[in-house]
Amino acid sequence: KSKNFNVLVAAHCFSDAVHIHGKDRIFVDHFDWINFLGKVSLKTDYRWLIKLHPSQYDNNFEKMNDLIKNYPNLQLLPKETKTLDLLKKINCALTVHGTVAREYPLFNIPVLNASHDGPYVGYNFSHSFKSLKKYKNALMNLKKFKVNKKELNKIYEQYSVKYCLHYHFMGFEKHMSL
Fold first, then answer.
1. What is the pLDDT, as a whole number, of residue 73?
2. Which of 74, 81, 115, 118 has the most CB atoms around its CB within 10 Å?
3. What is the pTM of this model?
4. Which residues, other chains included, contact 8 with Cβ-Cβ below 8 Å and sequence gap of 6+?
5. Distance in angstroms (rounded) separating the CA atoms of residues 111 and 125
6. At a CB cut-off of 8 Å and minimum separation 6, what does 39 contact?
7. pLDDT above 80: residue 126
């Protein structure tokens, strides 16, 4: 592990639907979120590592570079960066409503969601926020966050509800057209 406190920013696709889980959001869009993190990064001694969404890396690379050029503490990770390598190097992860919120706690890495209406809000295996003020305060104190190990079994519940029940419920299968 680095001597620094390493924060992973699990960036969302810029074209992704920021309001998919509700319209009362802390941030207007994913640009707004990254810009806010850039401003906060200037006030911390953390090492900020940005991992672009793997399915849209090429489409978002230039946009992200333009967005973070004024924030020297934000470091864009190469496309070939593997999650398994990151698990050994990071101390905390940030997302708006991404799957890292249920994945990284299994590896004892706390995750903060910049959302109060995402898919994890009813669970305590990651941390969700309702206001910009509380979220900013949390970012300034990331070293205090821990994984609630008593809640890890709820990750499997959330996954089951999201993926198993969503596609097969009470004998009716959801058919998806390609």
1. 94
2. 115
3. 0.84
4. 49, 51, 86, 90, 92, 93, 94, 100, 104
5. 8
6. 71
7. yes
CA–CA distance from 56 to each of 13, 35, 53 (Å)? 6, 19, 6
pLDDT value at 159 more than 80 = no
* Residue 18 phi, psi (nearest 5): -65, -25
Contacting residues for 89 by C-beta, under 8 A, at least 6 apart: 1, 2, 6, 49
Exposure of 174 in the CB half-sphere (CA atoms within 13 A) = 10
Q: How far is 129 from 113, CA to CA, in rounded Å? A: 7
Distance, in Å, from the CA atom of 121 to the CA atom of 87, rounded to the nearest integer, reads: 23
In terms of Cα–Cα distance, which of 48, 155, 29, 136 is closest to 92? 48
Name the more confident of 176 and 102. 102
Query: Which residue carries 């390609």 as its tokens?
Result: 178
